[in-house]
Amino acid sequence: MSDFHARIQQSPVVAAVSDLSRLSAAVQSPCEIIFLLKGTILTVPEAVQAVHAAGKAVYIHLDLVEGFSRDWAALEYIRQVIRPDGIITTRVNLVKHAGEIGLGAIQRVFMLDSLSVETAVKSVSHTRPAAIELLPGIIPRIIRRVCTETRLPVIAGGLIESKEDIIAALQAGAVGISTSKEELWYM
User: Fold this and answer.
1) What's the domain count of the chain?
2) Span 150-174, pLDDT tens digits
3) Smallest Cα–Cα separation from 93: which of 110, 75, 118?
4) CATH number at residue 74
5) DSSP letter at 66?
6) Which domain holds residue 146?
7) CA distance between the termini of the chain
8) Model-level pTM?
């Protein structure tokens, strides 16, 4: 994941692709990292290849891509055959197994209330993902707390709609932000 850290420092905006018809725009953007949030077992291999051909990193959101089971065999297949830079998932067991097999893992966590913040902090202390994607990413106080308590890289995502949202998340301690808003990929 050292490549992830270098890329996110160079370009803290991550292109989150929720429609594969927008993959070309993401690849052509200055973003160094692309999150694939949609696709199928049939379309993801070609998408990963296109991103890598452009010299960029790609992470597959395993919970949202269709056709993969949510178990260790799917992770092994993804690592050996599709070869992305890593996965994104909310599933603790998959984050842990991905780390064990050398597949970068970003643990996505949703901040709904104070209990979800506490639960997320405890969870990532056990799974030790390479990074955390925190949603919604527009709560600087919570971003700061999670950064401080976990000492893991935090990516703020969800509801990021402006340059001000990006700046606030980064100033709160996030190492990057993920957004599907194409105009923000050029910040």
Assistant:
1) 1
2) 999 999 999 999 999 999 999 999 9
3) 75
4) 3.20.20.70
5) B
6) 2-186
7) 24
8) 0.94
* Element (DSSP H or E) covering residue 86: strand 86-89
For residue 144, what are its two tokens? 């700061």
What does the block give as tokens for 44? 């993801």
Task: Name beta bridge partners: 133.
Answer: 108, 155
Residue 59 phi/psi, 5-degree rounding, is -125, 130
pLDDT band for position 1 (cuts 50, 70, 90): low
Q: Using alpha carbons only, what angle is made at residue 152 by residues 171 and 149, rounded to the nearest 5 degrees?
A: 80
Q: In sequence order, what DSSP letters do the residues of the chain get, joined into one string? A: -HHHHHHHHH--EEEEESSGGGHHHHHHSS-SEEEE-S-BTTTHHHHHHHHHHTT-EEEEETTTSBT--SSHHHHHHIIIII--SEEEES-HHHHHHHHHTT-EEEEEEE--SHHHHHHHHHHHHHH--SEEEEES---HHHHHHHHHHH-S-EEEESS--SHHHHHHHHHTT-SEEEE--GGGGG-
| Residue 17 neighbours by CB distance under 10 Å | 26
